Amino acid sequence: AGAEDIEQNEEETVIHTKFTDFGMMVKFLEDKKIEAISAELHYLPTTTKELSEAEQDEVLTLIDALEDDDDVQNVYHNLA
Which of 19, 24, 34, 73 lies 20 to 30 Å from 65 when distance is taken between CA atoms? Predict the structure, then answer.
């Protein structure tokens, strides 16, 4: 049904799929009467960036500030 990766543990199963297959995956689970706790889109980087410790601290401070802003819904980055 379009699953690219499945992670399973005692508490949950996480299914990763392409953006273009997301709707098909949701419908597949509904048709199988499998209740999803959540169905969300997340952006995953195709390349990551290595930074020095000082640069990481600076970027993480910015990310924390953005996440604390009520007007910001999501923050995505490609830090390794």
Answer: 19
